[in-house]
From TrEMBL:
EC number: 2.7.1.140, 2.7.1.151
Source species, domain of life: Eukaryota
Protein name: Inositol polyphosphate multikinase
Encoding gene per record: LOC115742369
Organism expressing this protein natively: Rhodamnia argentea
Record has ATP-binding as a keyword: yes
PANTHER family: INOSITOL POLYPHOSPHATE KINASE (PTHR12400), INOSITOL POLYPHOSPHATE MULTIKINASE (PTHR12400:SF51)
Keywords: ATP-binding, Kinase, Nucleotide-binding, Transferase
Catalytic activity: 1D-myo-inositol 1,4,5-trisphosphate + 2 ATP = 1D-myo-inositol 1,3,4,5,6-pentakisphosphate + 2 ADP + 2 H(+); 1D-myo-inositol 1,3,4,6-tetrakisphosphate + ATP = 1D-myo-inositol 1,3,4,5,6-pentakisphosphate + ADP + H(+)
Lineage per the UniProt record: Eukaryota, Viridiplantae, Streptophyta, Embryophyta, Tracheophyta
SUPFAM superfamilies in UniProt: SAICAR synthase-like (SSF56104)
Length: 290
């Protein structure tokens, strides 16, 4: 009944006998409560979200539905453990392309220990968090039934610089990656995934509007998950979605906007917007040449 989610692209994985999330065939995602208060913090956030009447309905939809907690057999053989029962955001999608983007120029929260701050700061500097305000934590881009997916290993993703991030965001919406790493990504799906009405850019802009006014929460080390139907994208039915996950380090906003997350969001919107603008220019050139 429970299995390791094929669509998982980052975080703690359950395979190899380690502790990680599981999914069932009913569209539910079981995330083990992490140690050191992280699990309790995430459960408290979901409970707060459920009772917070200030959150607009279209913003609430960006968060997984929370079905409480349940004791199930943990993936690491440690026996029955408490898990958060969440909506499996990618359930039912055939060959989804998925990207996890960890938000913020810093992933550590102010009240953290010096040791934890140093751990996060090292990663934030090594990756693009400090320089860009976000970093890609993992991704997989569907190519075809033969080529399957482009899914760079964690070590490669962790070493991304700004140019690599730009290229990964272009590859994420391309169909020709199986032609080899030197092929210029065709960004064939940039329009249907990023820019068309209701696409990722529109969803990011709506999220930005909320972050410009919400002062209840500061979302440290939280991820934006973007995904679409890789197999249907060719027919223009990509159904791109943006969701927020990983609330193990959400803290009270104390009436101040979350400028750390908001700054990363503005930067991500710029990166994706530039890809769309470039794609539009190429399309116009092709039309003129035709
Ligand atoms: N509700 C969900 N539905 C589907 N997939 C999800 C869901 N929540 C998380 N995932 C998948 O699991 C991955 C890890 O999720 P999450 O960040 O919550 O785990 P984590 O172990 O806390 O990560 P980290 O190591 O960054 O703290 C995400 O990148 C995504 O692929
Ligand atoms: O991004 P990576 O390289 O996978 O590293 C993990 C990531 O930084 C997580 O945010 C962190 O969980 P916390 O921030 O909640 O500590 C986890 O620590 P952990 O392994 O001690 O859980 C790291 O392993």
């Amino acid at each position: 009944m429970f299995k390791v989610p094929d669509h998982q692209v980052a975080g703690h994985r359950a395979d190899g006998g380690t502790l990680g999330p599981l999914v069932d065939d009913l569209g539910r995602f079981y995330k083990p409560l992490q140690s050191d208060q992280r699990g309790d913090t995430e459960v408290a956030f979901y409970n707060s979200l459920c009772s917070n009447t200030e959150i607009p309905s279209d913003i609430r939809e960006l968060f997984p539905v929370f079905h409480g907690t349940q004791i199930i057999e943990a993936s690491d053989g440690s026996g029955p453990q408490p898990h958060m029962v969440l909506e499996d955001l990618v359930a039912g999608r055939v060959n989804p392309s998925v990207m996890d983007i960890k938000m913020g120029s810093r992933t550590w929260y102010p009240e953290a220990s010096e040791k934890y701050i140093q751990k996060c700061l090292e990663k934030d500097r090594k990756g693009t968090s400090v320089s860009l305000g976000f970093r890609i934590s993992g991704l997989k881009a569907y190519q075809s039934s033969k080529a399957a997916f482009w899914q760079p290993v964690k070590k490669v993703v962790d070493s991304f610089n700004a140019d690599d991030v730009r290229l990964a965001l272009r590859k994420f919406v391309s169909s020709n990656l199986s032609l080899g790493s030197n092929a210029d990504p065709d960004c064939l799906y940039a329009s249907t995934v990023y820019s068309h009405g209701g696409g990722i850019l529109a969803q990011l802009s709506r999220l930005k509007q909320w972050f410009e006014v919400q002062t209840n929460y500061h979302f440290y080390s939280c991820s934006i998950l973007i995904f679409y139907d890789g197999e249907s994208a060719l027919d223009g039915c990509a159904d791109p979605k943006l969701k927020l996950v990983d609330f193990a380090h959400v803290v009270d906003g104390h009436g101040v906007i979350d400028h750390n997350f908001l700054g990363g969001l503005c930067s991500l919107i710029k990166f994706i917007g530039d890809i769309v603008d470039e794609d539009n220019k190429c399309t116009k050139c092709e039309v003129k040449l035709a």
